Amino acid sequence: MAGRVSGRLWRGVTAIILPIMLLLPAHAQMRDLMAPGALAATPLVGNGGAPLGANVESPDPFAHHRAAAENAPVVPPGRAALMVSARYGPGAPPISGGLIWRVYAADPDVNGMFHLVKEDRAAAPIFVLPAGDYVVHASFGLASAAKAVRLRADTIHEVFDIPAGGVRLQGRVNDVRIPTGQIAFDIYPGSQFDTAQRRPIAQNVMTGDVVLLPAGTYYIVSTYGDVNSIVRSDVQVQAGKLTDIVVTHRAAVITLKLVNQKGGEALANTQWTVSTPDGDVIKESIGAFPRLVLAEGDYHLIARNEGHTYQRDFKVINGVDGEVELLAK
Question: Measured between alpha carbons, how far is 235 from 107 in angstroms, rounded to an integer?
């Protein structure tokens, strides 16, 4: 059906896809799929596994439709039924959850906007619509597909191919998992070795979140803390697979203290500057005992308090959290 529609309808498809992808920030779209129960309904599994709830030997994208045949809606004169479903690709299992379907009028209104006719979040909804031309958009996380359809006085079946997979992220230092809230991930298209300028497609992804992406190559920028513990990793997303990514950081949590005597109480209103041995400043802060995540390596520390300046060098060892004290002498 889609292959027989006019060029006007296909122009409508192009005009609709981009505005839809800009409706929500990437992370907001991903969060919507993480609503209670949504992940359990999403047929994604770990590397090498088959999607849950799907018959891999004989995938049937219309199984949902046949199961609901007894409750199929009555189609009044002048209207038509549109049955839609999605799968991970030709011959691949159906996608059984986490989909958002939107049906748009094929022609823009006087303001140049495409009117949203219907929206549904079922795995395989049935739309009963007046006969005419439409553009149907299916989104699955950050992956999507769109088709132009022409409805007449019969029932139309459309299968959308959305070759998407998922990544679930976490960070570790040695064998210790970095707690949620202390590490965040940004996801970029392509490889980290591609020097072209790109914008992230998902930002501030938290530990344990599942991001649904079109199959392909991506690189992940993982930031532990807010100073200099940053790791870049390439990942390959496969259609119908959930890939668990563990990013290993070489860092430690360091607390800074300016004291009058060893082991004494930290002095308030201290200004801190942490720099490399060459003098490049990497962090400035104010407080009695700031807590920083620093990548392993050598550092130079300066503390200023009540007009006096104190300095020392220190080393950060991977996985060894601790305190760095300066004596106010």
Answer: 40
